[in-house]
Amino acid sequence: LNVLGCNVTVPYKSDVMESLVALDDIAEKIGAVNTLARVEGGYKGYNTDITGLLRALKSEGIVLENEEVIVLGAGGVGRAVAFMCAVNGASKVYLLNRTIEKAEHIAEEVNCKVGTQCVEAWRMEEYDKLPDKKYLVIQATSVGLFPKVDEVVLEDEAFYKRVKAGYDLIYTPWETKFMKLVKKQGGQAYNGLKMLLFQAVDAFELWNECKVPDKSAYKAYELLQQAVTKR
């Protein structure tokens, strides 16, 4: 069919890898791809979810290098986010999850593949035992996703006093309860709409071997924002 590429979603992000002729280094470490781009002999797999999130963070002035990060949730998304933080120079990544065994497995895997010891597994309710400082917090669960907009993975307002910037990967509703609690305690809060945009931009650039101008990307973001906020 001479298809330039395509996107892959759950539950096929890992299964499709065995059919590819090549893998981007980051996608191989993460063990999941969401974008396939045509190369000689077949398709190469990339993870633009993560490159898109990184571009979204940078667009807000958030730099991961030497940053201490709390990641909420040790599912597939939390695993990928932990990899992203480690690969991009975070000094410490605290992976919080209700099931500690799952977080421990991911922390061990990330540290081994990246060659670092920066990722630590913690129980969600033990956040108060972390060093008393301000953190970048990435909310990587589906808790709070529409229509269950009144839910949040951590209710305790004391936790949010430790958050200088909170990034919720959910983009609908426009302002999640997690974001509201971050703002209430004086932190900056962002949703996942820019990640959604930039993962698509990254995929488009790979398929067409081009660079999308920032002006065009942000025009698309404005249109997405209008669509989401009308819900």
Tell me what the structure shows.
With 231 residues, the chain is α/β, with parallel strands linked by helices. The chain has eight helices and ten strands. The chain has helices at 25-30, 48-59, 76-87, 100-114, 157-160, 177-184, 193-208, 214-229, and strands spanning 5-7, 22-23, 35-39, 42-46, 68-72, 92-97, 119-123, 135-139, 163-168, 188-190. The strands form two sheets. A six-stranded parallel beta sheet has the order 7-6-5-8-9-10, sandwiched between helices. A four-stranded mixed beta sheet has the order 1-3-4-2. Helix 2 (48-59) crosses helix 7 and helix 3 (76-87) runs parallel beside helix 4. 42% of the residues are buried. The model has no long low-confidence stretch (mean pLDDT 95).
